[in-house]
User: Which sequence fits this backbone?
């Protein structure tokens, strides 16, 4: 998805007669077209192949809908496929700031029978704040800080840089990623209590600390078919590091290498015009 904002207003100047007459004394008026009103809503169908749970060594298909909206008369700005769903309070040409939210899947015994004895982790939603800055037109820096609800109660942060380049209807992007989580987050997904260790029998008790949880990169390619339709394909890679990588869950049942693939189909339409 691409995000850039511009508007154009054409002004028509009416000139009076150059000859000296009664009509020449009449005032002239500038006629301005009315600004576009309403919103552009973009519905998205997302299909992803991703780790079954954080730290897993196998992949699962996940499909879900999402949406975004912008004011009519503006162009959709670039958005990386791993961005959270966001709404801007500040949205100028170089700086964006606002609220963001993400969904984090859970961890269940059905995902991997080797998880027997380990606590089930429910899905979580992660509301928070984001800031985005474009130092030059082809480079974007973005940071998100979020707090988990339901599945975990920790704080997480994602930092990223994206090189973005458009080639007609195509837009390609790529850049590094860095993820962090506090102790509450890492203990939920990568920790093992003594009771869990005794029930499972294959892992030892482990109490991780917060810090950097992964480093990696994301690349995407988008194509605009028409004013209504566009598609985006992406690939992502994360390498678990620190206490997350040292977790016995990762070492015994999972993998430090976390790969994701995805495809999004978008349809845009106007409302409230």
Assistant:
């Amino acid at each position: 998805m691409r995000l850039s904002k511009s508007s154009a207003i054409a002004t028509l100047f009416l000139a009076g007669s150059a000859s000296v007459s009664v009509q020449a004394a009449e005032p002239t008026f500038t006629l301005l077209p009315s600004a576009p009103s309403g919103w552009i809503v973009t519905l998205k169908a997302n299909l992803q192949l991703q780790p079954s749970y954080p730290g897993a060594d196998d992949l699962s298909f996940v499909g879900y809908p999402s949406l975004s909206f912008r004011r009519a008369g503006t162009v959709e700005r670039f958005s990386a496929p791993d961005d959270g769903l966001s709404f801007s309070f500040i949205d100028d040409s170089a700086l964006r700031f606002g609220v963001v939210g993400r969904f984090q899947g859970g961890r269940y015994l059905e995902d991997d029978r080797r998880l027997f004895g380990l606590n089930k982790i429910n899905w979580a939603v992660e509301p928070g704040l984001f800031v985005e800055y474009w130092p030059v037109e082809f480079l974007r820096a973005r940071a998100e800080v979020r707090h988990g609800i339901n599945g975990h109660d920790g704080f997480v942060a994602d930092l990223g840089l994206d090189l973005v380049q458009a080639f007609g209807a195509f837009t390609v992007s790529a850049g590094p990623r860095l993820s962090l989580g506090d102790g509450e987050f890492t203990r939920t997904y990568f920790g093992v209590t003594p009771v869990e260790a005794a029930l499972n029998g294959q892992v030892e008790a482990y109490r991780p600390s917060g810090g950097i949880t992964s480093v990696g990169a994301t690349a995407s390619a988008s194509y605009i078919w028409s004013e209504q339709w566009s598609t985006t394909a992406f690939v992502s890679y994360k390498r678990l590091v620190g206490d997350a990588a040292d977790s016995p869950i990762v070492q015994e049942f999972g993998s430090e290498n976390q790969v994701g693939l995805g495809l999004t189909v978008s349809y845009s339409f106007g409302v409230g015009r």
